[in-house]
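Morning, I've got a small favour to ask if you have a moment. It would help a lot if you went through both lines with me. Thanks so much in advance, here it is.

***
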Amino acid sequence: MELTAVLRDLAVVLAIATVVALVFSRLRLPVVAAFLVAGAILGPTGAGLVSEIGMVESLAEIGVVLLLFTVGLEISLADLGRMRREVLWAGGAQVSATILFTLLVLVLWGLPVPEGLFIGFVVSLSSTAIVLKVLTDRMEIDTSHGRIAVGILIFQDMAVIAMMLLIPSLRQWETAKSTEVLLTLAKAGMGVGALLVLARVLIPRLLKEVIRLNSRDILGLTVLMVVMGTAFLANRWGLSLGLGAFLAGLVISESDYVHEIAAQIMPFRDVFTGVFFISVGMLLDLPFLARNLLLILPMVAAVALLKTFSAGAAIRALVHPWRLVVIVSVSLMQIGEFSFLLMSEGYRIGLIGPIQYQSLLAIAILTMVATPFVMNAGPGIATRWEQWVTGASSFPETGEEQGLRRNGRENHVIIAGFGMNGKNLARVLKATRVPYVVVDINDAQVREGRASGEPMFYGDVNRPEILDRAGVGQARILVLAISDPMATRRAVAIARRSNPALFILVRTRYAADVDDLVALGANAVIPEEFETSVEIFSRVLAEYHVPDHVIRQQEQIIRSGTYRILRDRGPVRSEEVLAGFEEFLRRNVIEVFYVAPSSGWGGRSVGDLPVGNDTGIVLLAILRKDRAIIQPGLGEPLAAGDKLVLFGGHAPLADALSVLSRPAGQG
């Protein structure tokens, strides 16, 4: 293997991969699929541009090790505990159902049990890389369907380890004894235990000393040494290279330095993982795919339907609503990247032949390429499924909900979504005695809320009957604090038709959704990214001691017109906005000051206030309980709880408010 040939092949691989990745990015397709296509182009049945295939395969092995290491970094034992229903029950049921159903179909088709079981292993895994990429791009990781999908993917990633250990036993199915299989698993378990103990004892201490040096170079070298070292030890114990790296990542995931370590390893992982996917694409026989396309396409459809059905059944068994079931199950319809590891190992030891190997490769690549399109269509598919299959009985009304409905709430707030925002709003409304009800589709959230005494309705807020139960016709405000953009739009439209006078407040993560939601009937839309901008500039102005009322007015300008100032990128519009902003700041304003009991102003008179002709401030009124005292005289006494309505320019108001905010004795 000449160095010049290796460098030439590596340059060609990276050049073709870069071009294809750019094209796929323009088409909004995942980079993983781009690498697979690039590999097919580079491979021996494509353009045949790579002569040193062994070099590519060696780099691919490093990619697998780094990929499994980062998977271990991302899996926290604490997170596994919190997500045990999604990870253990939904993930276990999905993997088991897919394997058993695949085995049944293939055995009836005439394949031997070992081969059918192996193909079941391959088909049961989904693409963590692609699904997480799509969910991240759409900012849906922390939605209900995002959490369930991630939980199932975590279980699949962990199941790969057991599958890799069982593959040699499948090859010796006829002669293998149960005791030998158990002995192999026990030996593997002992090796895993030994590696975990060794890693827990040595790795944290080593990293602690390295972090103290505050050197990124040394930290990077140390992390690579840990990854490669644990992979080597695992291989010497008879385990896979990837398993050792995964265990190292799992140990480090509990470390305080996990984020620094991830930042060091991610660039290496992305490059070498890309090479791994390219190497897989190079294995695809393009003439074989062309000859058998009419046979492979029905197989692709069959695999997608099987995986969608098995995932949907597992999620539905946990009593999740149909909409969530459909969205999650269609996102897991592809064969994943870890399936390539299984396929390579099975083909290497002769468990499957070249025809089965090429067929599985083609099915995996085609399902991965189709995944982003299917996930984008998921909400629409879920909507049609609900319309065709389900009725009001999907969310049967409980006795507790009937009691809430019979109470006849009026002029109340409906909170859709009991996440962080919903809980905080409910807490404030309860403290201020504003009536409200909560609607949530997450049964765990509903149980938690009911246990704490919250007026909870279980159901999908974009279903008319659920909104009717919550009293949408008599409600004053609907607050949509859910993370599903499609469900939010439907809920806005349905609520507006049900109650034209309803005030609808929507939280969204996408600035692009603002105009659509307003057109559907939302009165106010709060994009999270813009609120972050408002908070940032408010803090900056406060540090420059800009008066509070000026900052609040600037915030009001930004929020007016559904954040149109921030969403407008045109140069002419920007000039108009700045001119209007300056004009607003030049105008006199009205400010309200609350006389707190601790302020010391209670019991004093209007004559003591920093107002009058010499200050440029006019006291328009005193708001006292249920009445207003218009233009009070100088002898009018002040009382704790009064609200003083002040009028004047920005600078005089700022001075007056500064004096009023100090205890009266210091004025």
The mean pLDDT is 79.
